[in-house]
Design goal:
alpha+beta, Trna Endonuclease, Chain: A, domain 1, five-stranded mixed sheet, 5 strands, globular
Length: about 120
């Protein structure tokens, strides 16, 4: 962990970095930190008419697995539940996908498009 920064601040920095990364690639931000009682979504973006639900994961080491591995089945179910709430309220007929932005300890950003499917 960077000196003087708590985990929440590090998470906010990772989300800001992910947002800028996606904007530079042509995605448009619809919402940040969408909360429901069922779960939270870090970023909701739009990519050529498709709603993209983005989970941002930062890991300083791969000691306990990488960022993608940290999106557990339980976390995926919470993301899906929160996404359903968003879609019902804001875009009931929109196509959507779930992406993961993984940021490693050196600051490298990996974009995993369509990281998982809704069962």
């Amino acid at each position: 962990m960077m000196r003087g920064l708590n985990p929440r601040m590090l998470g906010k920095q990772a989300e800001a970095r992910a947002l800028e990364f996606l904007r530079r690639r042509g995605l448009r931000c619809l919402r940040r930190n969408f909360h429901t009682r069922l779960g939270e979504i870090d970023l909701i973006m739009e990519d050529t008419g498709e709603v993209v639900f983005v989970e941002v994961r930062q890991r300083t080491t791969k000691r306990f697995g990488g960022a993608l591995e940290s999106v557990t089945p339980v976390k995926r179910q919470r993301l899906i539940a929160a996404a359903r709430c968003y879609l019902l309220a804001h875009a009931p007929n929109a196509a959507c996908r779930f992406d993961v932005i993984a940021i490693d300890g050196q600051g490298s950003v990996e974009w995993i498009r369509d990281a998982f499917q809704v069962a």
